Fold this sequence. Notes:
Strand order of the largest sheet: 1-2
Strand content: 5-15%
Number of helices: 5
Low-confidence stretches: none
Largest sheet: 2 strands, antiparallel
Shape: elongated
Amino acid sequence: MKPKILLRAAAVLMLLHTIGHTFGALGWAKAPNTKVAAVISGMQNEHFDFMGRSVTLAQFYIGYGISMILILLYFSLQLWLLAISPTRPMLLLTALLLSGLAVCEYVYFFPFAALFTAIAAACTWLSFKQLPQP
């Protein structure tokens, strides 16, 4: 398969991952049971001082979720643009970062999210391998 097709497939996978993550990140406070509801309530209501302001763990959680949406969207766009004009250094860097992200998602979140990123990483690695060396 050509690098362009592989990179476009990776871009679409990461865009789907972005959409899924966005729905999850925006609906995180819906508790499936009373024990989880108590944890969420504590995250939202217990304030503490951090770097000169009063914050909650929920604010950090929301901020990390939004940051991740932007990172996933960036990967989608970067992969799409790399398909137009791929370079070996950018493919290598992107493949390494996607691989690292896939491991993090698997260890700290869940396999379904990691699978999307792992397949995108594999497509990027294959593109890197197929691109002729200068």
